[in-house]
Amino acid sequence: MEKLYIEFKDWQNFLRGKLKEKRIYAPIKSENDIPFYEILNEKNLTDIVYDKARPVEPFKIFLFPFKEKVVPEIENFQEFVVLGVNSCDLKGIEILDKVFKEGEYKDPNYEKRKANILIISLDCKEPYPTCFCSLVGVNPYPSKDFDLNLSKIGNGFIVEIGSEEGLKFLDNDSRFYKANDTQIKILEEERERTIEKVKKINENFKIKEPENLKGMFHKEYWQKIEDIKNCVSCGSCTFNCPTCVCFLLEDISKNEIFKKVKIWDSCQFPGYARMASGATPRPSLFERYANRLLCKYWYMKENFKIFGCTGCGRCINGCIGKIDKRKVIDEVLVEKMKV
Amino acid sequence: MGKNIYKPIKCEVIENIKESPTINTIVLKPEEEFSFLAGQFASLSVPGVGEAPFTPSSSPFDKEKLEFTVMRVGRVTEKIHQLKKGDIVGVRGPYGKPYPLEKFKGKEVLLVGGGVGLAPIRALFLALVETYKDYKRIVFCCGARTPQDYIYKDKLFNEWQQLCEKIPLSFRITVDKKDENWKYMEGVVTVTLDNLDMDVKNSVCAVCGPPIMMKFTTLKLLEIGFLPENIYLSMERKMYCGVGHCRHCMIGDLFVCKDGPVFTYEELKDKPEIWV
Q: Ramachandran region of residue A122, left (φ > 0), alpha (ψ -120 to 50) or beta?
């Protein structure tokens, strides 16, 4: 893959030039430690966060919005650019693609919407205490599925070109020049260092093979785990997740003209799987909590041949009950040894 | 881009038949042809109210009309019961895998239906009757709470039983609680499985009914010697999309909408929460 380099100041000016023609979303510094996506403008352009890890929101919000019209399908999509997508979120797109695009049935909007988004991904530099991508086989830097990838090296960026559209975005601008061997060597070393950081953060967790959760649905594995009792069924873990795809369809038809909207749903809500009769397969809190983890590490693995977890850690960050999923998995696997 | 997967076909309501105090059959005329195979289901939408999955209860060979037998339990089914001739509803599908009739060939086929669970079994029964020469014989076991609760009374107690004289078919009919006019068996549906004179090891069985009935019927079938791979269960779950996207209907890693709704017990036995 071709690697270019651009000085920080030049990149900012280049991006400023792009503002006139493109709508760009980028992770902007917030009062919290973790940036939020905002629409880029002249003012916040200097507040883009390049040297941390993923933003608060998962990238899926751009491909699979909270609420959208599906009947009739959306006709026109606006083109836009998302800057600052991290490796864990790119991995999440693989799951979204498998659900909405690659199966026998295609979502009415997904593919068209995706075709209009240019992705500028970003290497992670400072993983958060909740990050665990290395435990699920994801690297903290992108290696595919982006149009451009940026990695902050010294006082500038190494820019990798991942697609024709990415190349076109650079407009043959002379401020980008071929990265030299020293810069590439630093890039490789920094990437190794970030992997080590993620490993260090997770050194006390025993989850080495999350697929060990396969078949682990029996009550005795889950009902004794104290932390699960802190779950308040808020659904934050599912809404924050780059691979949670559950939704419901609402009928808003009027006068015999069919109209439907698709809205996010969460398997953590007690009514999620409840049928009209009132019966539900998972009446207890711990069963619903278990369902999400089993879905990530067992069901999705069977369905799509990849984990439904990319190690982004948002479900841990966003948890009102302060449940650390990694700890729960460890404890469940210990229970398994006992039974 | 092909057809929108969520866009229903318009159907006109031809008739809304009261089957029992809680169950109606609506007869629809689709605006364009709607073909399905026995066991497959469709999503039925009442405009402005909502959508719910049902297995058609009419014969898959009937191309003119489409019937759904619906129990009144919630918001959407309440509205379905109120539909009148001429009203417009939407149907999309068919979804899921049908009963694998090729595997039934040359075998004795046992059908067990309880309550509104007779609906999908009816579609299967009508398909089997149409191709009866392919099977050794058909044994149809039916159950309901009381004689009043039986659906398809006109058919079951007349027309269908008359078929027994023409084709290798027999009925075993029960109610949980009989009344003074009842001339069949009494007891929950599993009583119809006592003293079955079938070559159980080589027979197939299709079961549909409320979860508790499905559970005890399956256990009984296993006990009398049916093989797990020959027991076909028609499963029910909360469902929205019908196409394997929304994940509401999952039983473990299986989608009821896409991998089912008909599963063999062999496929389900190691999955979580199968009896709800």
A: beta
DSSP strand pairing (A117-122 vs A80-85): parallel
CA angle B65, B67, B69 (to 5 degrees): 170
With 0-12 / 13-18 / 19 or more C-beta atoms within 10 angstroms meaning exposed / middle / buried, residue A36 is middle
Residues of B (61-100) whose Cβ lies below 8 Å from A: 73-77, 88, 90
pLDDT, tens only, A121-135? 999 999 999 999 998
Query: Across the interface, do B244 and A105 touch by the CB < 8 Å criterion?
Result: yes
Q: Are A222 and A332 in contact (CB under 8 A)?
A: yes
Q: Which domains does chain B have, with CATH numbers?
A: 9-95 (2.40.30.10), 101-234 (3.40.50.80)
User: Which residues in chain A are contacts of B52 at CB distance < 8 A?
Assistant: 276
Q: Does the beta carbon of B269 lie under 8 angstroms from any beta carbon of chain A?
A: no
Q: Is B46 on the interface with A (CB under 8 A)?
A: yes
Residues in chain A closer than 8 A to B236 (CB atoms): 275
Report pLDDT digits (tens) over A57-100.
999 999 999 999 999 999 999 999 999 999 999 999 999 999 99
Distance from CA of A213 to the nearest CA of B (A): 12
Structure pTM?
Answer: 0.94
User: What distance in Å separates the CA atoms of residue A138 and residue A94, rounded to the nearest whole number?
Assistant: 12
Domain map of chain A by residue range? 3-201, 210-338
B79 three-state secondary structure: helix
- d(C-alpha B187, C-alpha B145), whole Å: 9
How many angstroms away from the CA of A106 is the closest CA of chain B? 7
